[in-house]
Amino acid sequence: MTPETITATDAAALDIERIRADFPALHQEVNGKPLVYLDNAATTQKPQAVIDAVRTFYERDCSNVHRGVHRLSQRATVAYEQARTTVKNHLGANDSREIVFTRSTTEGINLVASSFVRSRLEPGDEVLISAMEHHSNIVPWQILCEERGAKLVVIPIDDDGDIILSEYERLLTERTKIVGVVHVSNALGTVNPVREMIATAHAKGVPVIVDGAQAVPHLAVDVRNLDCDFYVFSAHKVYGPTGIGALYSKREHLLEMAPYQSGGDMILSVTFEGTTFNEPPHRFEAGTPNIEGAIGLAAALDYVDGFGIDAIANHEGRLLADATAAVLAVPGVRLVGSARRRASALSFVMEGIHPHDIGTILDSEGVAVRAGHHCAQPVMARYGVSATVRASFAIYNTTHEIDALVAGLQKVREVFG
Fold first, then answer.
1. Residues 83, 185: one domain?
2. pLDDT tens column, 253-282
3. Average pLDDT estimate for 43-67
4. Per-residue b or e along 28-44, where b marks 16 or more CB atoms closer than 10 Å to that residue's CB
């Protein structure tokens, strides 16, 4: 949602102070100052509902899943599979069997690269990604292309941080075996027109994987409407635990894919002469899974759904618009990325001051931002910088915290003259 579409009525729909009360970590001081947490694109804080869900599993239902006949195992299995259904519903998938639990967005991309693309990639073939991708949607394809004698092709972006769609259409050829594109850029905040990009790829018979790590916390995602082949995200970006994520895949792709890892729970039978693998999604979940992580993820999605993603997007959109104007009013500040449609993240530099120094001084004022290349070094190179400062917003952030950010930037100017 573009910031200019936000109205005061939309933003007022959420009781932010009540929401903030749900997040224990927000109520602390850092360096003697109230914590202002603006590093949500890296990871979000966790509401009490998520903390309680994980704690309840350990206190009451702690057991392994799928293999036990006793009551605790049965309860754990039900909770784990209910979590899969929660993810399915949140993404608008057709079937819970289209949801594979992973460790992260990164593992989801690696799984698709290994199990779906590797066998289809021949020398001279191409993998097409955008110039704004996170390293997680670059490096797996680089490794695979080198292994298979294929080529990694990059869709350029313009000075504002938008994909150049005419170049995308030109680069999409009969040699393209998959398109990998981020839904929302973690470094620029750009919201890409992935539905249109998917339709363009499908017209040429090319499958698409979407990195949704930064989209799921901020936008309504409907994988059936997008018609993507694969969609990946991580729980910790959307108020859930670390170490758990999910891959959505169209069912027909999962049925064709070879196991990514092997071991327990991904088999139907094993003899020394051979193994029969389980049906998807269990085929791709070898070993004891992150049960409490999946339960925590489901609790996080339930928490978000309780407010409605549109209301959250409206609130965050207004914050982004206000923060953009306020930060640009600070002398010496330059935005990195001003795409037509942005979500949550605001990246900037200050003339003559290294982002790490800015981040350090802001921390002394209790303001937590991210300073660095954001695992998107090609983006930094595109804009001729080594790093940026990134302030990123979530459901619990307030306009008062934008004021604290700006006051901190003024302190930076005082320190560096």
1. yes
2. 999 999 999 998 888 899 999 999 989 999
3. 96
4. eeeeeeebbbbbbbbbb
Residues 264 and 320 in one domain: no
- The per-residue pLDDT for 235 is 98
State which amino acid sits at residue 37: Y
68 pLDDT band (50/70/90 cuts)? confident
36 with 88, same domain: the answer is: no
Pairing of the two strands 176-182 and 126-130: parallel
Residues 14 and 84 in one domain: no
CB neighbour list of residue 207: distance below 8 Å, 6 or more residues apart: 116, 177, 178, 179, 201, 229, 230, 253
Instruction: Among 272, 305, 338, identify where a domain stops.
Output: 305
User: DSSP letter string over 346-357?
Assistant: EEEEETTB-HHH
Condensed to tens digits (0 to 9), the pLDDT of residues 326-355 reads: 999 999 999 999 999 999 999 999 999 999
Calpha distance 20→340 (Å, rounded)? 30
Same domain, 141 and 218: yes
Q: Give yes or no for residue 73 having a pLDDT over 90.
A: yes
Using omega within 30 degrees of 0 as the cis cutoff, is the peptide bond preceding 281 cis?
Answer: yes
Q: pLDDT digits over 199-209, tens only?
A: 999 999 999 99
- On whether both 334 and 359 belong to a single domain, the answer is yes
CATH code: domain of residue 352: 3.90.1150.10
In 3D, which of 256, 255, 125 has the Cα closest to residue 179?
A: 125
Residue 188 CB coordination number (10 Å): 29
Domain that holds residue 342: 3-45+308-416
Helix axes 291-307, 309-328, angle to 10 degrees: 80
Separation of alpha carbons 183 and 132, rounded Å:
10
- Yes or no: say if 161 and 338 are a contact pair by the CB < 8 Å rule: yes
Report d(CA 5, CA 106) in Å as an integer.
32
The CATH number of the domain holding residue 159 is 3.40.640.10
- The SS3 of residue 19 is helix
235-258 tens-digit pLDDT: 999 999 999 999 999 999 999 999
Same domain, 373 and 270: no
**Active-site amino acid positions:** 375
Sign of the alpha-carbon torsion through 328, 334, 339, 342 = negative
Residues 231 and 360 in one domain: no
